[in-house]
Amino acid sequence: MKLADIVAFAWGSLKGSRARSVLMVIAMAIGVGAVVVLTALGEGARRYVVREFSSLGTHLIIVFPGRTETGGNMPGMMVGRSPRDLTLEDALTLLKSRHVSKIAPLNIGTAQLSWAQRSREATVLGTTHEFLEIRGLKLVQGRFLPGGDPMLAEPVCVIGIKLRAEMFGAGPALGQWVRIGERRYRVIGVLGAQGQALGFNIDEIVIIPVASAQQLFNQASLVRILVEAKSREALEAARDDVKRILKVRHEGEEDVTVVTQDAVLATFDRILRTLTMAVGGIAAISLAVAGILIMNVMLIAVSQRTREIGLLKAVGASAPQIRSLFFAEAIVLSAIGATVGYVLGEAGIAAIGQIYPKFPAAAPPWAVGAALATAVATGIVFSLAPARRAAQLDPVAALARR
Fold first, then answer.
1. Which conformational region is residue 136 in: left (phi greater than 0), alpha (psi within -120 to 50 degrees), or beta?
2. Does the chain have fewer CB atoms within 10 Å around its N or its C terminus?
3. Of 131, 113, 115, nearest to 60 (Cα)?
4. Alpha-carbon gap, residue 99 to 82, rounded angstroms
């Protein structure tokens, strides 16, 4: 019996049992589709985080208060016990390093923002003029915080574009005096639409001079310092300088955490790749379930097709040829199910892209390949028992249905 004959026979057998074949195809398609969609979500999360961090620049250093190892842990986990706060003086001293080009100290809090009869709570970020360039933000109106002495607490602010719409509507925002907490600030600039970035909605943020933020929140310590090295090649030297300078200022205590953007990126990349593989593995369990379904259905099919198998063996079909017929059925079913599942998975990813256009969901090629190969392999493996049972049937007993 030639390969073409085996495939044609298997296809004819599947067409003769449409309901059974459709059920097995659906089971396999669900498994493959689940793997494709879930790995696409994991890969999308990884790409989103990497893109957000990359937007900060390629030679950025972040300084956190608190001593811990700089091993590429997540930023929120780096903050250990802090015997000494980071201060604005600490930040300014970092400019003494010849490898550092800019610094942006950060002080963050929330306060009530009000103008005329309108009021809402807003995130207030205290920083310096250099923050605009370090973060790559864009202005649509006015100007950013003035340069000069960071110790000077000027009563000015820059607001996000959503805040501008909520507070001032169609009226002019520049030059207006708003109240933040118990203090008044003049609006000098409006940021362009930026969306979410590293936990902040830039469109709803208020930026004021760092010294003003320290007065507003009555807090002299900084939550972090953004340091920009002069070049990517100078990144490691700048990192060493930052640690050395702060150690000297803190009386010999190495009580800050200094991480480079590469370390943070590598950490997120490693975590999210592992997460993607984990969810893909969980989804692959459904492929095993589909394989068990195929095995059960084919075992029933062997019982129902006893006479057919007996007739084939009576006309000279060998045991290996009988096994090949059942293997061919399993491969055809698995291949069709895997293809349908892949198409459904890609349709699901397209739907996610329509609902969340900024989320870069895309199934990694390795996941697609693994899902398709696993589907076919599962079908073959779980067809072994039915094929063996069919091959062992005695032709006389099979024709007599005993």
1. left
2. C
3. 131
4. 26
